[in-house]
Amino acid sequence: MNQLPFPFLSVAVLAPVGGALAVLRTRSVRLARLLALISVVISLLCALATLWIEIPRGGVLAEPWAVPLLGAAQPLFAADMLSCIGLVLFTSLALLTIAAAPRRDLNRPRLQQLLWLIAAVAVVYVSNHLLLLLAGWALAALPIAFANNTSEDGAAGTRATLLIKAVLTAGVVALGAAIVLLGNQAAAAGIVSPYSLQTLRQSSLAGGQWSFALLMLAVLFTKGIFPFHSWVLTAFDRGSLLNANLLVNAHLGAFLIAKVAIPVMPSIAIGALPVLSDVALFTMCYMAVLALRERAPRRILALLFVGQASSILVGLESATEAGVTGALVHWIVVASSTTALAIVLRLIETRVGARVGTAQFLGLANRFPRLAVFFLIGGLALVGLPGTLGLPAEDLLIHGTLESHPQLGIALPIATALFACHMLRLFSMLFLGKKTSNLALLPDAVLRERAALTVLIAFLVLFGMAPAWIIDRQASAAIPLVEKLRSTSHRERPLTPIARLTAKQ
Amino acid sequence: METLLMAIVAAPGAVFLLLSLAWLTGWTPSERIVARLTVITYVFASVGTLSLFFLMRSHGLLQLSANLGPWFSAGSYHFASSLFADRLSLPYMLLTATLVGLIGAFSRRYLHRDPGYFRFFALLQLFGFGSLLIFSAGSFDLLIVGWEVVGITSVLLVAFFYQRPEPVRGALYVFAMYRGTDIGLLSAAVALHHFARSASYSEMFRGAWPNQSLNFDAGSATLIAILLVLAAAGKSAQIPFSGWLPRAMEGPTPSSAVFYGAIAVHAGTYLLLRAHPILAASPAASALVVLIGALTAAHGTMVGRACADAKTYLSYASLTQLGIIFVEIGLGLKWLAVIHVMGHAATRTLQFLRAPSMLHDFHQIHSAAGGHLAATGAHYETVFPGAMRNWLYRLAIDRGHHDTILERFFLGALDRVAQALHAMERIWSPPRPDTDKPEWNQEVLQLNWKEQSTTRARQ
C-alpha cells in the first residue's frame, strides 16, 4: 500500500459532512446552496487529487495515519483505481446536480439530505474497514428511506415510503450480517485485522457461503434487481427524483461485488456470480418488456436505469477483460446519462408545474429545444449509440458477455435494443408530436442549467469520440478482478460452450 | 492517399460538429452559410474520392488501408479503427458524396425558410459522415459506428416535421426495426472476433475484392452470414422488415430521396457485398439471401401497383429493385449488383426529387405529346384470372398483411406479456398515480402553463 501525501480521502469524506452541518446552521437558502456547492467542490478536488496520484502508481493508496479499530492498526481509508474513479464520478454528478437542480428542489432539508448522501457514498468508496463501509452504506440509504416526502399522496404514499424503507433497511441488515459473519470467519482463521478490507483481499478465505449469500442479497436489494426493483421505481416516481437518482447512481451494489465479493471470496464468487448474472440478465429483459406499457416518464426512466444498471452486473461476472472493463465503463455511462436525463425531466416538471405524463404527445421541443437536445444525447448515450461513451461501453459489454455466455448473452443486445426504443419513445412523447403554442414565456435551459448539462453531455460525447483514456483507466481496475476470477476459474469453473468449441478447434 | 481518405470521411463529421457547437452556443448560422458549407464539403468529398480512385489506379493499388491504430482496447479485444478503400468501397463513396451534395444543393431552395432548415442540413452532414464511414470502414467494428449513425439520422429526419404525430410514430417504427435488426450486426462482429480473431477485412479475407477468400475456418460462416443477412435485410427493408420503408416517407422529400432512394437502403447491399467471402462459404445463407430478395421483389412490385401516392409508390419500387439486387448478390453476381445499385440509386433519387412536381411533369409530357397519351392496358397482372386478381389486389392494398401479421403475432404478443407483467407488478407495488387521470393530462398541463405564463408576465 502506498501512502497519500495528504489525507485527501478524509477531506473528501468530511467536506460534505461539514457542508451539511453548515447548511443546518444557515437560514438563507441561497447561502445554503453556495455552502453545499463549496463543500462538494472540495470533495471533488480531493478525489481528483487522489486519482492524479493513483494513475501513475497503481495499486492501493492509503491515508497517512492508521486507526486501531477492532483489530490491528489499519488505515481507515484507502483507495484503488476503482474507488478513485467512483469517487470522482459521484462527486462530479452531485456537483452538477446541485448546480442544475431547480431552486424549489434545493431547500435546506433536501440539501442536507444530499450532502449526507455524498459523504456516505464517499465513505463506502474509500473505506478500508468493513464496519465503516457498513456505516457508510446505512447512512447512504437512510436519508432516502426515511426522509422521503410522500405525504401529499396519502395512504398510497405511506405504502410507497414503507416499501422503500423496508427494502433499503433489508439491504443494510443483509450487509451487516454478511460483514459480521465474514469478520468472525476471518478472526477464526487467525487474521489479525478481520475487518480490514486490504488484509482480507490479500488472504484467501475458504468457505463463507452464508456471508457471500448475504452480500449478494444486499446487492439485489440495493441495485433493485428483480424481484426487488419496485423500490427504485417508487423512489423515482414519488420521492425526490434527483436525490433518488444520485443514490442509485452510486452503484453501491456493483461496487460491493467489485471491491469485496470478488477479491475477498473469489472461489465462491466464481460459482455464485453466474446465478446473479442470470438474474440480472432476466431483470434487464423484464424491465425492457415492462416499459412497453409504461407511460409515466419518471417510471420509464427508472425502468431504463434498472435495466441498464443490471447489465453492469452481467459484465462484471463475464470474467473477460472486455466484459469487466465494459461493465465499469458502462457504470460511468449509466450514472452520467441518467443524471442528465433526470435533471432535464425535473427541469421540465418545474417549468410546466406538474409531473408530466406521456399518454399523449407533449411537443415540448418547440419551447425547450436545448433541453430536448440534452435529453436526446443523454438518452442515446445510455443505450449505446455512436458518438457517445455509451458505444464503447456497450461494445465491450456485449463482446465480453457473448464470449462468456453465448446462449443467454444474446439477451443483452436484445434488451438493449428494446431500451433504445423506449428511450426514443420517451423522448418523442415529451418533446415531439405536437405544436405547443402557449408556453411562450417559459425559458429553455437557463445559463446554470445549460452549463451543468453541457458538461455532462460534453463528457459523454468527447470521451465517446476518444474513449481510450477512460477505458484504459477502467481496464486497470478490471484486470485484478479478471485475474482473481480467472485464477480461480482454471481450477473450478466448467468451460463455457463457446470455450469448449474453441478448445475442440 | 491515406490522408486524403481520412479527410474525405472526416470532412462532413467536422462540419456537423462545427454546426452543432455553433447552435449550442446560441448562434444559428444563416441559410446561405449552411448551404455553402454543405456544397463545399461534398464537392471536396466527390473530387477527393475521384482523385483517390485515379491515384490508386496510377500506383497500381487494388486496395488502400489507412490505419489509425486501435480506437480502444481491453485485454485481447481491440476495436480496430482503420479506413479502407477498394473497388467496392470507392463507387459507394463516390455515390454518397455526389448524391448527398446534390441533395444539399437541391434542398437549399426546397427548404428555404423552413423552420427546420438548419436541423436538416446538420443531420445531412451527420448522415454523410455515417455513410462514408460505412463504405470506408476497414473493419466490421467501425462499420457498425457508421451504421448506427446512419440509423439515428434517418430516424431524426423521418421525424423532421415533429409537430405532427404521424412522422413521430413513423420514426419510432423505423427506429425499432433498425435497432432490432442491428442486433445481427453486433452479434456478427462478436462472432467474427471469436472465430476469426478479428473483424478487420484485411485480416479476415485474403486477396482483393471481388476475388477474396476466407482467412478463417469456414465452419462458422453460416452463423455469421445469417447474422449479417439479418442486419442487411433490416437496413435494406427486405421481407419481413419492409414495413418501415413506406412509414419513412413522412420525412421531407430530399431526405427520402437520399436515404430511401439512394444511400441508406443500399447500405445493406454493401454489407453483403463486403462480406461476400463469408456468404460464399455458406450455401444456406446465400440461398436465404436469394429467397429474401425474391420475396421482397414480388412483394414490392405487387404492393407498389396498389399505392395511391407517389412517394409510397416509389418506396415500393425501391423495394422491388433492392430485392432483385439481393438476388444478384445471393447468386454471386457481384459486379452486376454494384452496377445495379449505382444505376438504381441515381434514378430513384431523381424520381424522388421530381415527385412533388409529378403532376406538373405529367401535364408537360401530355402537352408535348399534343394530347392525352392512350393507356396501353398492358399490365402484367392481366395474365392472372379475375378472381385471383381481386385477391391479389386486396393483398396489395393491405401491403401483404405485413403490419397485421407483425402486430398480431409479435407486437401483440409482446404487449400481452407486458400487460400481464404490469398486472403482476400491481400486486406488490404501492398504488401509483395514473398518468391518464385528469389531474395529469394535457388540459391540466396547459392550464398550468397558462397560469405560469400569466404569473411570469405579471412579474
Provide the helix percentage of chain A: over 70%
Tally of discrete structural domains of chain B = 2
Question: What is the total domain count of chain A?
Answer: 2
Oligomer: heterodimer
**What percentage of amino acids of chain B are in beta strands?**
5-15%
Radius of gyration of chain B, whole Å: 24 Å
Helix count of chain A, per DSSP?
20
Q: What structural category do the secondary elements of chain B indicate?
A: mainly alpha
Low-confidence stretches of chain B: 435-441
- Major β-sheet profile of chain A: 3 strands, mixed
Distance between the terminal alpha carbons of chain A, to the nearest Å? Answer: 44 Å
Please, could you describe this protein's structure?
The complex is a heterodimer of chains A (505) and B (459). With 505 residues, chain A is an all-alpha fold. Chain A has two domains: 1-126, no CATH class; 129-498, no CATH class. Chain A has helices spanning 8-25, 29-57, 81-100, 108-126, 130-146, 154-188, 197-202, 209-223, 230-238, 241-248, 252-264, 266-290, 297-317, 321-352, 369-382, 390-404, 411-431, 447-465, 468-492, 497-504; strands at residues 2-3, 61-62, 67-68, 73-74, 78-79. In chain A, strand 3 (67-68) and strand 4 (73-74) form a beta hairpin. In chain A, helix 12 (266-290) crosses helix 19 and helix 14 crosses helix 19 (468-492). The longest helix of chain A is centred in the middle third of the chain and has 35 residues, at 154-188. The model of chain A is unreliable at 491-505 (pLDDT under 50). With 459 residues, chain B is mainly α. Chain B folds into two domains: 2-356, no CATH class; 401-458, no CATH class. In chain B, 70% of the residues lie in helices and 6% in strands. Chain B is built from 19 helices and four strands. Chain B has helices at 2-24, 31-58, 89-110, 117-136, 140-158, 165-195, 201-204, 221-235, 244-247, 253-262, 267-274, 276-280, 283-304, 310-330, 334-354, 358-368, 386-397, 402-428, 442-458; strands spanning 63-74, 77-86, 205-206, 213-214. Chain B has a two-stranded antiparallel sheet. A two-stranded antiparallel ribbon of chain B has the order 3-4. Chain B is globular and about 60 Å long. At the A-B interface, helix 6, helix 9, helix 12, helix 14 and helix 15 of A face strand 1, helix 5, helix 6, helix 18 and helix 19 of B.
